[in-house]
Each structure stands twice: as C-alpha cells, then as structure tokens.
Amino acid sequence: MKLLQLFILLTALPLVAADPITAALERFKKVDSYKVTLRSKSRGEDEVIRYYYRKPGFVRMEFVTPHSGAVLVYDPGKKKVRLRAFPSMKSLVFTFDPGSRTVRSSQGHRVDASDVGTLLRRVQKLQKDGSTVSAGEEEVGGRKAQRVEVTGKGGAVFEGVHRYRLWLDAGIFLPRKVIAYDEAGKVVEEVLMDDLAIDVPLPEGLFEL
C-alpha cells in the first residue's frame, strides 16, 4: 500500500508543477471565505482596500486609499451593489447594478468579478493558447511563494493583458502578488495581497449596509 501511495504522489507532482494555475483554482474551490488587504498600483494611482469574500460571491470592500472610509458591499442573491461613500453619513447609502461604471475599479473590474477565483480564471484564459513557466521560489511579505509567468501566444491579449506574473503562496497556493503586463511590456496593474487569511469566520451582517 505504501508503494502505491508513493506512486500516486510521484505521478501527481508533475501535473501540479506543469499547471500551477489549475492547481491554484482547485485550491480556491475549497475555500469558503477569505480576507485580505489589497494594495494595487495602476496608471500612477495607488489603492488600498480591506477586502472580504464569502461564497457564493458576497463581497465587502473597505476603502483606505483613496476614498477613505467608503464601504461597498455586494450580495449575489440580490445582484446589487450597496455603497456608503461618506463615513460621516451612515444613513446615506446608494444602490447600483454591478455593471455600473460608478462602482467599477480604475481598471474597469466589476465588484461581482473581483475575487481571487475570477483572477485565476482570467489567467487561465490567457494561458490556454500561451505558455506557463514556473520561475522558482521567492519571498513575498515574509512568506515563501512560487513565481509563475503566463504569457499569451504571439500577441494574444485578454482584457488588455498579455502577460501575468504571479506569486503563489507555498502553503495555501493562492496568489500573494500579481503583476499584469500589456503587449508592450508595460505594467497594467500590480496588486499585493497583504495579510491573506482563508476560511476565516466573518460576522453576520458584514455584507449588509
């Protein structure tokens, strides 16, 4: 039995090494909730957001920079985004459809497509007819991470991105850092995921305003 288990382990390892994006997606499927501090840079703009997620798609964003104090929540059942833009006016809450430009990110990302799983599926679509290279282990935020680069074939671009560079946490195998590049090699967006914690208990009412 031990020999059989060893054989299964050895034959499975190349699959993970050859396709770390699929492995990361499979890991995400087993996650019920997570929280993270997102630090993103794009087009000279910096954003810091405390982000909370719970399946099947509940989202809460607490803005630190810019729009300090603003809070946004998304309920996948109601398919509505609620926004409290002014922390001093707690009763003033706006409601939007998730496709509204008002509640999209600076890169045009929708709230209902802002989680780690959606990011990995974007990478996977670029990967489909492109190349995937594992570039060894590095340290990100004090944790070991596997660096992976996914490049579209030829001039292939998906949603403005030609190449992704990801650092997948060695322990939980989810992204700790992501950099997206356009066809010219310029950075489209860089996101650092600080204090990432998975399967955390989230209080009732967190996704309500």
From the spread of the alpha carbons, the general shape counts as: globular
Number of helices: 3
Report the C-alpha radius of gyration, rounded. 18 Å
Main sheet specs: 11 strands, antiparallel
Domain count = 1
Description:
With 209 residues, this protein is of the alpha+beta class. The protein has one domain: Clam (outer membrane lipoprotein receptor (LolB), chain A), CATH 2.50.20.10. The chain is 19% helix and 41% strand. The protein has three helices and eleven strands. The protein has helices spanning 2-18, 20-29, 116-127; strands at 33-42, 45-54, 58-65, 71-75, 80-84, 94-96, 131-140, 143-151, 163-169, 175-181, 187-198. An eleven-stranded antiparallel beta sheet has the order 6-5-4-3-2-1-11-10-9-8-7. Strand 3 (58-65) and strand 4 (71-75) form a beta hairpin. Helix 2 (20-29) packs antiparallel against helix 3. It is globular and about 50 Å long.
Q: What are the key terms here?
A:
209 residues, 3 helices, 11 strands, outer membrane lipoprotein receptor (LolB), chain A, 11-stranded antiparallel β-sheet, alpha+beta, disordered N terminus
In short:
The protein is an alpha+beta fold. It has helices spanning 2-18, 20-29, 116-127, and strands spanning 33-42, 45-54, 58-65, 71-75, 80-84, 94-96, 131-140, 143-151, 163-169, 175-181, 187-198.
Helix and strand topology:
Blueprint: H1 2-18, H2 20-29, E1 33-42, E2 45-54, E3 58-65, E4 71-75, E5 80-84, E6 94-96, H3 116-127, E7 131-140, E8 143-151, E9 163-169, E10 175-181, E11 187-198
Antiparallel strand pairs: 1-2, 1-11, 2-3, 3-4, 4-5, 5-6, 7-8, 8-9, 9-10, 10-11
Helix pairs in contact: 2-3
